[in-house]
Amino acid sequence: MPEGNCSTLIEDSCNAPEWINQSYFESLLRKCKDDATIKVQSVQVKYALAKGENYASVIYRVQVVFYSKGQPARTRSYIIKGLSETELAKQKLGEYNVHGKEMDIYQLVIPELRQLMRSTGDSSDLYPNALCVDRNNDVMIFNDVSKKGFVMTDRTKGLDAIHTKISLKAMAKLHASSLKLVEMYPKIFDSYKTGMITRETDAFHDFFQSTYDALTDEIYTWDSEWHYYANKLRKLRPDFIEQGLSVFDNDSKDDLRVLVHGDLWINNLMFKYDNDGHPVDVLLLDFQFCCYGTPAIDLCYFFFTSARDEIRQNGFEEYMQYYYYHLAEYVKRLNCTQKFPTLHQFQRQILKKMFYAIYSSVVALPIHLNEETADADFDALMAGDERSKRFKKVIMANKKYHKIIKGLLPTFDRKGLLDKLD
Fold first, then answer.
1. CA torsion sign, 285 to 106 to 250 to 381?
2. How far apart, in whole angstroms, are the C-alpha atoms of residue 355 and residue 349?
3. How many CB atoms lie within 10 A of CB 143?
4. By CB neighbour count within 10 A (0-12 exposed, 13-18 middle, 19+ buried), where does 118 fall?
5. pLDDT tens, 150-174?
């Protein structure tokens, strides 16, 4: 194919950088496939996710047609992930170093975690393979796993029992293999301090507080019987950030500590199904907010943002037990030597950090359930301007969210989670 016929086509609505072109992919594929004869015929670029599905990153889907000596033309799809494009996102997320940390995770940590699980006879991938971590262009490039049958589920519906359990098993594999990795390299996660709520920066604090306030204001518009909870939330307000921070504090040397994914919800999971429509495999995506801390961070965030409501309202202890037994199994298979908690000790550790259920239900869940995408972007979360206030009012007015939070508030109150600190 003559080189003059090469082309790069960028979808009209896609603001992709100029370096994503046939020359770039020709060099990349020659290196990755160890074939200097590869020629790229065409490159097509578009956004991989619709507005409202992702806030902290820009993700492109790139279709590449290429050929090499003696081989017919082949078409492959790749995912390019970079940092969100707005100045505010670059500033706020830069204080978390989310992108640099995630590149390190995919390049240095995940290969070790995957190898540890495979040493137990577990052949599942668990994570997408990074074809390339390109630090010059500040992106990661992945094979498009949708071509292997992995798909996302509807974030507004929540996960049923089968999906919830396969996700918890995957979480247990991540956490168990990280325990073994710390035994092998004791300082490997020493720098992983910036989870979603962190003492390292207050860049997100106004966002957390304003979203919390939007719920309080919304509850005051409901029937007066609900004002009891709005009053409790208002009294708790001065302690809300501090209680969230305390979840991430490693305040007991005896408590379980693992590599926490940090943002484990429906849109950061992709499932593969058998011919009968049953999920048989799952991938964990997006490690921007990973940190070293209590597994309660992942467990509370995942359970209260992503499980279907009948599970969320009634099944917490049952599903924590399910996770614990699988974690214990993988720890044993990995020959971890550190002291492992009993189920009772583990449940006490989770209860001690359960304020994260409040954060997950009050700040994260209404955003995840939102279907009004006109203002659904990073700046609408963080800016604090009129558009941001309008967006938060919209997400709190969601009737689907009302049904969920009305079920959770009495439960949280009975556990003492809505009480102001002394």
1. negative
2. 12
3. 16
4. middle
5. 999 999 999 999 999 999 999 999 9
